[in-house]
Design brief:
- This protein has about 375 residues and is α/β, with parallel strands linked by helices.
- The protein folds into two domains: about 5-225, 3-Layer(aba) Sandwich (Rossmann fold); about 240-370, 2,3-Dihydroxybiphenyl 1,2-Dioxygenase, domain 1, CATH 3.10.180.
- The protein has ten helices and 16 strands.
- It has helices spanning about 15-25, 40-50, 65-75, 105-125, 150-170, 185-190, 205-215, 255-265, 300-310, 325-335, and strands at about 5-10, 30-35, 55-60, 80-85, 130-135, 175-180, 220-225, 245-250, 270-275, 285-290, 290-295, 315-325, 340, 345, 350-355, 365-370.
- A hairpin with a 4-residue loop joins strand 14 (about 345) and strand 15.
- Bound molecules: NADP nicotinamide-adenine-dinucleotide phosphate (NAP).
- NADP nicotinamide-adenine-dinucleotide phosphate binds near residues 10, 13, 35 and 62.
């Protein structure tokens, strides 16, 4: 049994910060979280508190009083094993060309994205445990020249260089500067106002790479979250489970709202993934320890069947198993009598999946994250 680890994640009320907090909560990490909006932060705290110890402080990372409150909370928690500087400002939207960029606005972007992360590290240095890990969330906009992205991109470039020098100055820490890749979040929508961004992967797809940096043995440096090997990102017992990483019991339900009330509100299961506003049908994944329950309405179940098993519907219960390799797991299942009901497909929800039927008729969806593909690829 390893001791519980403690982490500060800034900007954890939604998007990538919340997705990372959810993952670490299920691993038993103690969480210190912030964001400016109190309501959303409290909702996140209440959800995560079902799984772990959470301290959530509303405030702006650019405010020194708020940073001091985070220091006091970190001390109260017995120190930090890791800090994730994730809170970030996009700047003006729509993104203006540099020659029209408000200089006050630019200063604001740099205050949040560059000065505040360093200020936090300066304030928290005394609370960091030996070998602490620092993750500074940057962006490809910090290294590529995308028109309109000059203000935000320059701030991320500055954060990258600051991280690089910090890694050289503090060899006892692991300092990572990490590009999470495009993600379907509020910030991304603000960068593309009025555009359909539903083909971008959810932030959960970038989380295993961040977990690898927090739990693995990689040296300080620049990483792309979705390119990282994910050996250490697996739950500790995955190796003993034949390579299967998650059991997701996918239940097709007649009355979605009643089922939501029963499982989420009645049992108090925290929401892990929420697709209840999808155009193809409603579904939601609730955390349930090492397993999860996915509730789908008939439309969403029919849509999933149409992709994975066009000739045969799953019925009310289907096992959905995340595997390290769909192909290998499929071969193993077929060797034991399972029958494939379709080819391996790239799904619009960013997985490689294959549906199989067991000899006694139960459908199994094997899936693995597939961030390189999304709808239309
Ligand atoms: N989304 C993408 O495609 C993408 C691509 C590359 C890199 N990134 C980077 O990934 C990270 C996460 O972005 P995201 O897309 O998840 O953004 P998001 O959904 O907009 O979430 C940002 C989070 O940070 C909080 N926040 C913003 N400013 C803050 C401040 N000054 N003080 C404290 N909290 C603050 C927000 O809550 P409040 O607004 O309530 O404070 C929210 O919880 C950022 O560093 C971003 O630059 C994103």
């Amino acid at each position: 049994m390893t001791r519980s680890q403690t982490i500060l994640i800034t900007g954890a009320s939604r998007g990538l910060g919340l997705a990372l907090a959810r993952d670490l909560a299920h691993r038993g990490w103690t969480l210190l979280l912030d964001a400016r909006g109190e309501e959303a932060l409290e909702a996140a705290r209440a959800e995560l508190a079902h799984s772990t110890r959470v301290v959530a402080l509303a405030g702006d990372v650019t405010d020194s009083w708020h940073r001091e409150a985070l220091v006091a909370a970190a001390r109260e928690l017995g120190g930090l094993d890791a800090i994730v500087n994730n809170a970030s400002a996009l700047g003006t939207s729509p993104l203006p060309p540099l020659l029209n960029y408000s200089l006050d606005g630019l200063e604001g972007v740099f205050r949040t994205n560059v000065v505040a992360p360093l200020a936090l590290l300066q304030s928290l240095r005394g609370e960091l445990k030996p070998g602490a890990r620092i993750l500074n969330i940057t962006s490809d906009a910090g290294v590529e020249a995308y028109p309109g992205w000059g203000g935000y991109g320059a701030s991320k470039a500055a954060l990258e260089q600051l991280s690089h020098v910090l890694a050289a100055e503090q060899p006892d820490w692991r300092v990572y500067w990490v590009d999470p890749g495009d993600m379907r979040t509020q910030m991304h929508q603000e960068a593309y106002p009025g555009e359909d961004i539903s083909d971008r992967p959810l932030p959960e797809v970038s989380v295993p790479g961040l977990v690898e940096l927090l739990t693995g043995d990689l040296p300080s440096g620049r990483y792309q979250a979705r390119d990282l090997p994910q050996s250490a990102a697996q739950p500790a017992d995955a190796a003993q489970a034949g390579g299967v990483k998650e059991l997701r019991l996918a239940l097709t339900v007649e009355d979605f709202d009643a089922a939501l009330a029963l499982y989420r509100d009645g049992l108090g299961l925290p929401t892990l993934h929420d697709w209840t506003d999808s155009e193809t049908g409603r579904s939601i994944v609730l955390a349930a320890g090492v397993g999860t329950i996915e509730l789908l309405d008939r439309a969403d179940a029919a849509y999933t069947d149409s992709i994975e098993s066009p000739a045969q519907a799953a019925g009310p219960v289907r096992l959905a198993l995340e595997a390290a390799s769909v192909d290998e797991a499929s071969s193993r299942l077929q060797a034991h009598g399972a029958e494939p009901l379709g080819e391996v497909v790239h799904t619009s929800w960013s997985t490689r999946s294959q549906r199989l039927r067991t000899p006694d008729g139960l459908h199994i969806s094997l899936y693995q994250p597939d961030p390189g593909h999304s709808a239309g690829d």
